[in-house]
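Example record for the data management plan.
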Amino acid sequence: MNNIYQPQKARVISASRESIDTVLLRFQFADKTLQKKFAYLSGQFMQIGFPGWGECPISICSSPSDSQKYFELAIRDVGQLTHKINELKSGDEAWVRGPFGNGFDTDLYAGKELILIGGGCGFVPLRPIIMDALAGRIKTKSLKIFYGCFNEDTLLFKKQYPEWNRGAELGIILEKPTANWRGEKGLITALIQKRRISPAATVVMVGPPVMYRFAIKELEAKKIKPQNIWLSLERRMYCGVGICQHCAIGPYYVCKDGPVFNYAQLKNISHAI
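Corresponding structural encoding:
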């Protein structure tokens, strides 16, 4: 989009319930010319909303290779606006701006062991990387996916697990599962402790700040260097263009300089994570 302040109308072409509180919406721009020119990177985000309701930042969770056909947003119902968005169905319309942020530079992962660590709804922006890696668009040496969630009801993208498990090492751990759960139980740090990780691996991690602090300690124990750990501070997003200063940390505006950062950039900034 040429004018970053000008919302564009987008139409829902499919809607599916992903978890007890999250809907996956596939959008196309009403302007077909705009859709054909649309491009984004994994880790970038859109602003979505309605006149009179405001807008909110949501990470794009479809593959960049599909950007000229559609884009997908997985939206958790946590307030009035997101509740209204969650009620959208095929044919409904919303207003969007973007993409914003810097995204993940997936060229840096070529030929390396890639470890993806997602916590809760932070798993959303990792989906495009998984899809592109399994399709061969990212040439990794190997792919390991660690996903921590609260319980079975909150797990995202369950229909894709069989495919992901065939092409990668998929580890899922739940904090408070039901008695019927046969997988691993606990926090995602337990997965990092148990699994074999090369010191030369590249790690991409998205989740709540408290997860970052403890997960990074485990990664450092595995001899992963700070410059090989990539984080998204997507939860600090607000206006998207660096005006409101809501996302300021140290010398950075997360919405403009991020949301993707190298841990080496953040480790000496107080309260960055």
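Summary line stored alongside the record: Residues 248 and 254 are 6 Å apart (CA to CA).
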